[in-house]
Amino acid sequence: TQLLEQSPQFLSIQEGENLTVYCNSSSVFSSLQWYRQEPGEGPVLLVTVVTGGEVKKLKRLTFQFGDARKDSSLHITAAQPGDTGLYLCAVPTGGFKTIFGAGTRLFVKA
Amino acid sequence: DARVTQTPRHKVTEMGQEVTMRCQPILGHNTVFWYRQTMMQGLELLAYFRNRAPLDDSGMPKDRFSAEMPDATLATLKIQPSEPRDSAVYFCASGLDRGNQPQHFGDGTRLSIL
Fold first, then answer.
1. Which of A41, A97, A98 sits opposite B107 (nearest CB)?
2. Which residue among A30, A91, A98, B46 is least crowded, i.e. fewest CB within 10 A of its CB?
């Protein structure tokens, strides 16, 4: 059983559409991170959310941390082909390591 | 921007051969991580170091895999002997051991064992 469940696993949409991907768990976290991995590259951190209910915006991307700090969502407005990639949620642990979800693979068609 | 550097970027070899992957972490980072990524399993943590000391290598098959940090600028991951099921992309990441510091990933080594 994965500590972090991400949904959907795969998403293929047309340019200009909006989408939301989710990261869920039964555990409470002190913080949660979102990474994006483009083809042929390593994951890159997009944002860290810390406070329950927190909302952060990064251009067309909106990240929300659940009130109970057990889940998070990533909403993309007017998706573009450049948004194509694997979106990973992750939680830092007290042992210096980070636990990653399996990811949502997004493909945006022009 | 400082980057984690991994070599080689691609490696194709026959089963039974030794494979060595190298990683240069970002200068000043004191944690280093090795991950393996496949479509089926996603991103799996193999081993990690703090201040060059191995903290956890429970994700690694011990009979064939070994990870070391000979100095602060070099981390290595070796597979001997390699098997076709080891085919994957191997990532190294580095970071700082405090707070919510992110991990900075290299671009990976794509390994194919024939």
1. A41
2. A30
